[in-house]
Amino acid sequence: MESPSKSETTCGDLRIEEENDDDPPLLSSHALAALKEFLDEQAQTQPDVHLESGVSEDSEVALVTEDWRLSQFWYDRDTAETVTNEVLTLCQNFESPRVACIACPTLYTYLKKLGPHVSAQLLEYDERFSQHGSEFTFYDYNEPEELPMELKHDFQIVIADPPYLSKECLEKVTRSISFLAQNRESYLLLLTGEVQAKRAAELMGFHPCGFRPHHSSKLGNEFRLFTNYDPGPRLGGWEQ
């Protein structure tokens, strides 16, 4: 959302009226309350991307504002931390782990905060994330294998969050997963709608875990976390 220009004198439906050219504008108590409410709403909707540490005052990771036109819905803190900690546990199985995050910038950002030593690559359509430099790769799921050759079979861990709950989107994203995964022993995690459960199992042998992902925006669709490996007691285990 763009900020109002400095020359505007309206605040929603609130208008500031000047009594004369010399006196400052005067507001009633009702108008002041309305102005404060408007400014508070504006502060909440502005992206918090200028924090030097990348972490806000309440220790949550700062993210750019969701763009619903790109089907962007960030995970809530509990979901992001739970999945990130699972990835960090898997990383312990490798001397030099490489993690690919397909269309899941929330998880990439948390991973870089909680495991800054881990080598991770974000594959994302939204070029606002190019701020991550060499760890950002532009990704369009419509061209699932149009990726740099140096990324082919380069990752022991791949996390994917297809942007749309369609058969076509999931099929194309799984082609990207196959392109990136190092081998059949790679750990794969998929976050998508529950409606994709049967399709995910058929395409890559994914199983649903007991842990239920949630988004900050409280989406109506039920989301699930699928893995191609048995997490044991973690993530609520595999559902039978």
TrEMBL record:
Segments of skewed composition (Polar residues): 1-10
Cellular location(s): Cytoplasm
One term of GO molecular function: nucleic acid binding
Root EC class: transferase
Record keyword Methyltransferase present: yes
Entry annotated with the keyword Methyltransferase: yes
Renumbered residue ranges of the record's region Disordered: 1-27
Membrane spanning residue stretches: none
A cellular-component GO term for this protein: cytoplasm
EC assignment: 2.1.1.-
GO terms for biological process, alphabetical: methylation
Keywords: Cytoplasm, Methyltransferase, Transferase
Pfam families documented for this protein: N6-adenineMlase
Listed PANTHER family: EEF1A LYSINE METHYLTRANSFERASE 1 (PTHR13200:SF0)
Reported function: S-adenosyl-L-methionine-dependent protein-lysine N-methyltransferase that methylates elongation factor 1-alpha.
Similarity annotation: Belongs to the class I-like SAM-binding methyltransferase superfamily. EFM5 family.
Protein name as it appears in the record: Protein-lysine N-methyltransferase LOC111477605
